[in-house]
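pinging the channel bc i need a second pair of eyes. not urgent but kinda urgent?? the chain im working w is below, pasted from the shared doc
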Amino acid sequence: MKKTSKILIVEDENAIRRMLIKILEEESKDYILEGVENGEEGLKKIAESNYDLVISDIKMPKMDGEELLIEAKKIRPNLMFIMISGHGDLETAVNTMRVGAYDYIPKPPDLNRLLTAVRNALDKGKLVEENIILKAKVNKKYEIIGSSQPIDHIKAIIAKVAPTEARVLITGANGTGKELVAHQIHQQSSRAGYPLVEVNCAAIPSELIESELFGHVKGAFTSAVKDRSGKFEAANKGTIFLDEIGDMSLAAQAKVLRALQENVVTRVGAEKDVKIDVRVIAATNKDLKKEIREGRFREDLYHRLAVILIEVPSLKDRKGDIPILIDHFIKKIAEEQGAVPKKISQEAVNLLQEHNWTGNIRELRNVVERLIILSESEISREDVELFANK
């Protein structure tokens, strides 16, 4: 079903206000139109109702259009505004655009330009709204669940580190949620509007890792049939997350070190450097200091990466979060399956809290899903005893 668009006309001249409403009513039956005669009434309406667009005169008694725009943006930062004025000049237009207007149209308005501006403003507003919803879903997907002291400590570090450009090395056992920390750092940073590119260094064969990270030119090797950019270039202005960096070859480590030192990469087989602007977050389940001693990891790269160290605790060190995590997974899995969340007894929760979670949060999530599938109306202690160790 096509969404209707709610438009508010703020204009002190009654004839012009009625004319604008009539023109827009004839333009589309999907427009719901209201009109008020000054900025104060407009602001009250905006505070009370959810408009998609405001078309406002600038010169009005009580509160002019520019004041209305500024105050309305405090209430609804993403609300689209089109400003109109018979007293306008270039400076007025620039000022209204600077404080958040989508467009500025002088009086008497050119009707074709006005209708085009209305359509474009509504389209942009819908796109902004969709992006906000999508971002909220992404943020929820990578939310760090828990309120234990170790998790509160990590959240506090993320809040301090994210707005900076500092490189971060995340350590912790498999399944602890290192990627969630990386995503939170990116989402809370000034780079959030740009890509977060993830690279699992352990999953890429050593002979392909350089091409994957830095790209290649045609003919660089047998299967290089065309030029290809790498992950560093794909992450330009954003963040690259090098997961399991402890599994990277020494040759690739040397090139990553150069990229960090000089902010350039060289595609395999190329002579020309490509400039990059990338924040690097790395993660590993290995003891990199031990890897350095045994000659498998470069010490200079370690010090480049480990400006900030974040150690993600194992589930055994944050058992107080297990009931919260169980509740979270039950709701999330039910949502994914389009089902009603299944109840779980306190005895079942207590038993799961005592379990030795060697696979950490990833294992807990799998067990909760198994219990949901195999149990009856409520997950019981007996269900945990039967199915949790499978």
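so The chain has three domains: 5-138, 142-209+238-256+274-313, 316-387. and The chain has a mean pLDDT of 91. — does that match what u expected or am i reading it wrong
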